Amino acid sequence: METLTWLQPRPGGVYVDATLGGGGHAEAILDSIVPGGRLIGIDRDEQALEQASRRLERFGGAVTLIRENFAALKVVLQSLGLDRVDGVLFDLGASMMQFADPGRGFSFAAAGPLDMRMDGRQPLRAADLVNELPERELADLIWRYGEERWSRRIARAIVRARPLLTTEDLAEVVRRAIPRRAWPRTIDAATRTFQALRIAVNDELSNLENAIPAAAEVLREAGRLCAITFHSLEDRTVKHTLLRLSRGCTRSPGSSACTNGETRWLRVLTKKPITPTPAEIARNPRARSAKLRVAERMPDDSTE
Ligand SMILES: C[S@@+](CC[C@H](N)C(=O)[O-])C[C@H]1O[C@@H](n2cnc3c(N)ncnc32)[C@H](O)[C@@H]1O
């Protein structure tokens, strides 16, 4: 999706791939920045780091891989002695690797435990929400993070079927809770509920809300932030956070002081999100709902 054309990695530059995954984007960035450049790859999934480290082995010391939540971006960079970087990439959501492993519990395509944790060190699993949340809270969660209009019926059906142990059992209960005539045509009837649980288990939207301002702060002047999203909640979060960070100072009439105390961190370069071409979708069906938004760092003292 022209992501690298927008990120503009240049030889000798320092870049952060905040969602390393299997290392595909990281490898492409590294090809453009070596010799002399450096890539910091962050992921909270141990398996992603293992796979990426094998893939990126040939780049040697140009690569630093860190197991961390990207919300801690500033601390990660400080620990490496880096104040500023030339670009930050977020390729959000779960990876193909995570979806493809039934043992991780992300997918209803095969039976697996109700897990869905990107970071295996965290205690909260999908099973805890599915089997323990009060019905009303579960319905709210499915409504808010899944934008699922049948959330109340689904929550009621889940509570009646407790305890649910596998992804297959959960998917079946969700499908049965939605009248067949109302099943979506292009996605499985269980998709929205699974998305909601995954977002909640991994606290995906709050992490994103915290990480984008942190990325804006560590960018060098004219450095770029690229964010690829896969569903509307994620895209809305990116869009609104970028807009907030690109709004300048508000002054009351006749005064030179900022009344909102805002620095103008960013300039948004994509009024509308960039979407994949039909050829890209044919090559990679997962790209179907991808949206790319890009912003550029303003000079340090920019308020307007
Ligand atoms: C869509 S995949 C990235 C794929 C990657 N661009 C590639 O080319 O292989 C998203 C990755 O981001 C990681 N991730 C999601 N949220 C995260 C967070 N808050 N902190 C760290 N990693 C996160 C996931 O574990 C997953 O491996």
User: Which fold name is given in CATH as the topology of the largest domain?
Assistant: Rossmann fold
In what range is the share of β-strand residues? 5-15%
Structural class: alpha/beta
Present as ligands are:
S-adenosylmethionine
Runs with pLDDT <50, length 5+?
Answer: none
Query: How many domain units?
Result: 2
CATH superfamily of the largest domain: Vaccinia Virus protein VP39
Write down the overall geometry: globular
Please give a structural write-up.
By secondary structure, the chain is an alpha/beta fold. The chain folds into two domains: 3-91 and 204-297, Vaccinia Virus protein VP39 (Rossmann fold), CATH 3.40.50; 102-202, Orthogonal Bundle (DNA polymerase, domain 1), CATH 1.10.150. It is 41% helix and 14% strand. The protein has 13 helices and seven strands. The protein has helices at 3-7, 24-33, 46-55, 73-79, 96-100, 126-132, 135-146, 151-161, 167-177, 191-202, 204-218, 232-246, 278-283, and strands at residues 14-17, 38-43, 63-67, 85-91, 219-229, 266-268, 291-297. The protein has a seven-stranded mixed sheet, sandwiched between helices. Strand 1 (14-17), helix 2 (24-33) and strand 2 (38-43) form a beta-alpha-beta unit. Helix 7 crosses helix 8. The mean pLDDT is 94. The chain binds S-adenosylmethionine. S-adenosylmethionine binds at residues 19, 21-25, 42-45, 48, 69-71, 91, 93, 95, 118, 207. Residues 19, 21-25, 42-45, 48, 69-71, 91, 93, 95, 118, 207 line the site of S-adenosylmethionine.
